[in-house]
Amino acid sequence: MSKMSATKIAEVGFVLGLTGSIATGKSTAAEVFKKHGIPVIDGDVVAREVVEPGTDGLMAIVEVFGKEILNEDGTLNRKKLGTVVFADDESRQTLNRVLNPFIRGRIKQQIAEKKQQNPLVVVDVPLLFEGHYERYMDAVAVVYTTEAIQLERLMKRNQLTEAEALKRIKTQWSIEVKKERADILFDNTRTKEELVQQVESWLKEQSFITD
């Protein structure tokens, strides 16, 4: 499960990157950390915060994609924007490029703040390796499942056809590639309960929890 299991982590403010790929179970793992009071910096939450009405992030998106991606109340129409970027690789890359400085800056700020007060800080970023966020982490944990299971779960969860699900999966690095780059591996090829137990066991091994 872990390349680090033999060595206890003793540093104060240890920063653990948490990633996976779509429908591999990363959110389930993140909830375990939260349950134990461990701060989790959620990249998806940050991405929403930086495009709230009145933010520079939202203004930057409008400059590129036009006011058509806004709702009448000035908020971002995520469904409309999603339709645009999932249909076209160039548009998706453009969106990532526009938002990257805002998201990266906010995540780095939160890491700096939280690591001063907590023995462990988890940074939950879906595109951690793709965005080279590993440089800000002391270690990276990957929530893994096979590509076949990933496809099956995504189709069921989002009510997608196989072609639609594959298209979304291919917007990220292969989970097999991420598995090879992991410092810690949480295997989610079986049940949710077994995944939860693996995260709990790692926390106990590293003395971040005692019960």
TrEMBL record:
It is found in: Cytoplasm. It catalyses: 3'-dephospho-CoA + ATP = ADP + CoA + H(+). ATP binds at residues 23-28. HAMAP family: Dephospho_CoA_kinase (MF_00376). The gene is coaE. Keywords: ATP-binding, Coenzyme A biosynthesis, Cytoplasm, Kinase, Nucleotide-binding, Transferase. Its main location: cytoplasm. Pathway: Cofactor biosynthesis; coenzyme A biosynthesis; CoA from (R)-pantothenate: step 5/5. The keyword Protease does not apply. Gene3D superfamilies: P-loop containing nucleotide triphosphate hydrolases. The keyword Cell wall biogenesis/degradation does not apply. This is Dephospho-CoA kinase. It is an enzyme of class 2 (transferase). InterPro entries: Depp_CoAkinase, P-loop_NTPase. Catalyzes the phosphorylation of the 3'-hydroxyl group of dephosphocoenzyme A to form coenzyme A.
